């Protein structure tokens, strides 16, 4: 299994090296004209039978390795989110220099024919995928996929973080402004992964925790928690006067208290402020809690077209190593929210920390077997700019990755060496299962097909004998070696109960020796 991990990681590492070298040699050209293969437009013709712009002929052929999907194993193609202009100079330049990845994609596939999808997700928003495949919009003609919202991108691009989101619900936020604010919060939640912790506080004259049961603490940003908070956002309404000083004091206290308990990410901390204005710079609060170390970054989002209070919000962000942006319409939300990821990635970029990331298992809708969509994990690594003029600024270029079917992990387990009662399993740094013999996927009612909305399963849900999570915590805390404990099991077909000593041996693959949660 360790050898397989190493093999996949090396494939990703070669992509990183090629991408950084290609960008180093590229000089940005605002007038660059370049016809690339757009994954949505390829092979599309107009009413006169001519190929559309960016939709040149792209040879596709069914391939059994890719579930008989029509693909091109010689070239990659590029997907651009519907809400972005596909000929934007930043997009065109990025697509141009990343074209050199085609050779590495093909070489990786030749070296390791078990590889599935390989890709580069750009910080500018485009997604280069190998082998090339045609993307089909939904019934509304939209492709909502944005690689920067995917877990593999988020985990590779940023360090773990603790986040408090403050939302202004004073009377001036009524109507469209509150709608934009809610969408901004939702988009921020999209950028949080399982390594992150968060809470949301609405404020006017008083503080209103979006989830009152979680007053004064932070929760892990797993899918269940994020969806729960999203449901509660609809209950927010605007009235009264905004008292930002009270909200800032509460946010700083939560982050400080949570950090002192040793819980959470034990890494980056941030306050996201979403408001239509601030009447003061609140420097006395920052001086009390955050200066001179500035351990908590402040990101400010000005809602609405008016810029009367923009200067105060800009000052707050700049004085606390954060970022200011203005969001005037719902269409502006996605791109403006993404800006904070570039800021939080800077320490990793400047230190050139090419951490290898393995995600928890998830369902891939593009590949299926006789039981439905295939269970998959992703190995990813960040790509940094090495150009002299940008290196000191810490510019993240994007993230490269490749998918690994969980069944490939199972093939590496030498069952004949484990004995009749032995078994092997693997988990992520958050305790989620990659593979385990007791992992039972949910099936659609009345069918033997996996549900497409598979949620991650924690080790504690299948190793039920580990009631105090001793085994789980040892693995999450990266302890290695032999481990044993007494367990009770039924014998004689359930008529008697006996106590037995069960042993495990924990090892950490060499490709996972970095810490995702630095102390």
TrEMBL record:
InterPro entries: Ca_channel_alpha-2/delta, VWA_N, VWF_A, vWFA_dom_sf. GO terms for molecular function: calcium channel activity; metal ion binding. Pfam families: VWA_3, VWA_N. CDD domains: vWA_VGCC_like (cd01463). One of its GO terms (cellular component) is monoatomic ion channel complex. Keywords: Calcium, Calcium channel, Calcium transport, Disulfide bond, Glycoprotein, Ion channel, Ion transport, Membrane, Metal-binding, Signal, Transmembrane, Transmembrane helix, Transport, Voltage-gated channel. Residues 162-344 form the VWFA domain. It is a single-pass type I membrane protein. It is found in: Membrane. Gene3D superfamilies: PAS domain, von Willebrand factor, type A domain. The keyword Metal-binding applies. Belongs to the calcium channel subunit alpha-2/delta family. This is CACNA2D3 isoform 1. It comes from Pan troglodytes. The lineage of its organism: Eukaryota, Metazoa, Chordata, Craniata, Vertebrata.
């Amino acid at each position: 299994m360790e050898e397989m991990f190493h093999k996949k990681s090396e494939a990703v590492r070669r992509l990183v090296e090629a991408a950084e070298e290609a960008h180093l040699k590229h000089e940005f050209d605002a007038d660059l004209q370049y016809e690339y293969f757009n994954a949505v437009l390829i092979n599309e013709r107009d009413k006169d039978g001519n190929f559309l712009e960016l939709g040149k002929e792209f040879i596709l052929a069914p391939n059994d390795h890719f579930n008989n999907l029509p693909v091109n194993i010689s070239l990659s193609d590029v997907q651009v989110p519907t809400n972005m202009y596909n000929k934007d100079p930043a997009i065109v330049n990025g697509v141009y220099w990343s074209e050199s990845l085609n050779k590495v994609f093909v070489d990786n596939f030749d070296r390791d024919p078990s590889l599935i999808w390989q890709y580069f997700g750009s910080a500018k928003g485009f997604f280069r995928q190998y082998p090339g495949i045609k993307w089909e919009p939904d019934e509304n003609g939209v492709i909502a996929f944005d690689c920067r919202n995917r877990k593999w991108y988020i985990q590779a691009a940023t360090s773990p973080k603790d986040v408090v989101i403050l939302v202004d619900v004073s009377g001036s936020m009524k109507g469209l402004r509150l709608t934009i604010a809610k969408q901004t919060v939702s988009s921020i939640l999209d950028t949080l992964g399982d390594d992150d912790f968060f809470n949301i506080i609405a404020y006017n004259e008083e503080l209103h925790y979006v989830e009152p049961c979680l007053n004064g603490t932070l929760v892990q940003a797993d899918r269940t928690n994020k969806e729960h908070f999203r449901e509660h956002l609809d209950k927010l309404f605007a009235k009264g006067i905004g008292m930002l000083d009270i909200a800032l004091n509460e946010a700083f206290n939560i982050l400080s208290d949570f950090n002192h308990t040793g819980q959470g990410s034990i890494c980056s901390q941030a306050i996201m402020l979403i408001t239509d204005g601030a009447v003061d710079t609140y420097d006395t609060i920052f001086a009390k809690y955050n200066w001179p170390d500035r351990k908590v970054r402040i990101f400010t989002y000005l809602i609405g077209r008016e810029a009367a209070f923009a200067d105060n919000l800009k000052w707050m962000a700049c004085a606390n190593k954060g970022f200011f942006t203005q969001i005037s319409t719902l269409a502006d939300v996605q791109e403006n929210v993404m800006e904070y990821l570039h800021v939080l990635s800077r320490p990793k970029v400047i230190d050139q920390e090419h951490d290898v990331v393995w995600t928890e298992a998830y369902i891939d809708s593009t590949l299926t077997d006789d039981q439905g969509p295939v269970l998959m994990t992703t190995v990813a690594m960040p790509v940094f700019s090495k150009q002299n003029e940008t290196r000191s600024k810490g510019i993240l270029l994007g993230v490269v990755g490749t998918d690994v079917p969980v069944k490939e992990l199972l093939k590496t387990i030498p069952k004949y060496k484990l004995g009749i009662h032995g078994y092997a399993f693997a988990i992520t740094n958050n305790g989620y299962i990659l593979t385990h013999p007791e992992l039972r996927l949910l099936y659609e009612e009345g069918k033997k097909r996996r549900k497409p909305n598979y949620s991650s399963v924690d080790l504690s849900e299948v190793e039920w004998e580990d009631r105090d999570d001793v085994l789980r915590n040892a693995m999450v805390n990266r302890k290695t070696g032999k481990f044993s404990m007494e367990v009770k099991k039924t014998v004689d077909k359930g008529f008697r109960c006996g106590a037995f000593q069960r042993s495990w041996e924990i090892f950490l693959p060499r490709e996972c020796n970095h810490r995702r949660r630095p102390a």
